[in-house]
Amino acid sequence: MSHVIDSCGLSCPQPVLLFLNAVKENPHGPYSVLVDNDASRENVSRAARNRGFAVEEEDQGNGVTRLNMVKT
Question: How far apart are alpha carbons 27 and 10 in whole angstroms?
């Protein structure tokens, strides 16, 4: 089961920082991050890939995207 981080309503860099703090505590994941803007989607995805996670995007409707991340 993945750890869910809800960053809806937050602007960068807050979603990235929430993800990075979670990774410090559990470097292996998996994680799901909910984002509601393109900048957060792109920045969180980039941060995850840079740390060895595969990222899958899932449209949740109403402008929300779930970023599912697993360590590769």
Answer: 23
Domain count, the chain: 1
Mean pLDDT estimate for the chain: 96
Phi, psi of 63 (to 5 degrees): 80, 5
We report the CATH number of the domain holding residue 44 as 3.30.110.40
40-71 pLDDT, tens digit per residue, is 999 999 999 999 999 999 999 999 999 999 99
In angstroms, the CA 30 to CA 52 distance is 11
Whole-structure pTM value: 0.95
State the Cα–Cα distance between residues 56 and 58, nearest whole angstrom.
Answer: 7
Residue 19's domain comprises 3-71
